[in-house]
Input
Amino acid sequence: MMKKRIFVPENFNSDNATEVSDLYKSLESAQINENKEDLREWILKWSELESVLAEVSSRRYVAMTMNTKDEKAASDYASFIENIDPIMNEYGDLLRKKMMAHPSVSDLESEFGIWFKSVRIALDLFKTENIPLETAVHQEVQAYQKITGAMSVDYEGKTYTLPQMAPFLESPNRNLRQKTWELTSERRLLDKESLDLSFDKLFKLRMQISKNTGSSDYLDYIFKTKGRFDYTPKDCRDFHSSIEKIILPALREIYKKRKEDLGVSTLRPWDLQCDPKSLKPLKPFENGKDLIQKCNLFFKKLHPKTAEWFQIMVDQNLIDPDSRLGKAPGGYQIGFDESRLPFIFMNAAGTDRDMYTLFHEGGHSFHQFAMADQPIIAYRDIPSEFAEVASMSMELIATSDLSAFYSKEDAKRSIFGQLEDVIWLFPWVASIDSFQHELYSRPNHTAEDRKNIWLSIMDRFDSGVDYSGYDDVKAYLWQKQLHLFEVPFYYIEYGIAQLGALQIWANFKKDPEKALDQLFKAESLGNSVSLPELFKQAGIRFNFSPSTIEPLIENVLENL
Ligand SMILES: [Zn+2]
Output
């Protein structure tokens, strides 16, 4: 896949700040003739340099997270961030300005127009007085992470982090679930005031940043910075209403069934993650090797391209599946920009969720392969509204054949859980997104107002879960969602993408090969066309109206 270099020398040393600066300097001082071919060549050189450096950075990040005890890996990554990143940022800004000032830039509009649009907005929104404010946001986010990272619970003589407490909610033992849920919730509430303060500080800083750019309000500002050119805040609010009218009743039905299966009189917040028939957790695979082998069997049969791509990942060790001591938590997929290869990092422990995680990250990986021929790095950076279609649709497509993992009975249980999660996601996304729409339209709201706004949203999207006796837990549930603190307004994307994924799944049921051909065709376009065009090429609609949503939810309910 590696493209032949046209600019960066083969013996280039990316650790040498002088060498890096020199390459950037030569781009900055280059005399680009007044024609689009010369400008395009200059852009491709710049993009190649960025791709080479991005790959170094990604590979070092991977090495560091694969073994957090490896001090050399940590210092290699840190040295890149300290020494090379600032050079990239500084010159990035200069080169963007140089490009936009070139007389031939308009001749490349049809090729690079989507990228130019975001560059113009970034240049337009850039204000020097915001630099210290952005730094302050960064520091406050770190302070927030310190608060949440320090949360732990003592249970039966052992200390657990909050993520480590989550598996207890899957236990068939209801008393144990309640006890561990209470411990976790009480621990969070201990910091409710400091989290409120942290939110206030971040909120004020962000409002000031937006004001400094001359934007009419925060929503206007954040939609521009996120490149949301194809939908408006009003579209989001309409989406919330559609979710309330169409999807929430489906979730209520699912929860009613869950309540009956569990044989309880009211469904409590600790009853949502366990098996509804109180069966033991599913066990789809033994270890990472087994997981990869079984996924490989599935992808071999699915489509010639998934067969080819997944085999490359297996042959080149591009998946690190197993949880082990010293490995960083979580899971992610990352692209290596010069070699155009994906990498999947996981902490699989043998659960049903882990199986879907590999399908999800597999979907992201196929996107990387599909768009490998996109010439500029900016076009290989996919908006999440579509990037998550690639991954979420693969989770749904996986349910078409789980025979490598499960008996018929177990497959049914697994699919039920998966579809329950799909439905659950929408009202939660709508709650988090509408909460932010409310907060940011009230610049002077107090912590007490915030609590009341949240409670009214909890009522609006009430799925029938009984919080009585736990009023404070309910009132501060929003504090669980790190996006509110770290990346405001980044959440509706999951709802939009899930809607796309459900459409891909519906297409797949009608004609598997055609649905996947269309999906990969759209993926091959990278970020070179608008979001609605990406959806269109994938054979799906970019639309959040009831007429799109209704048949999709019917399809899910039929499968339940
Ligand atoms: Zn994803």
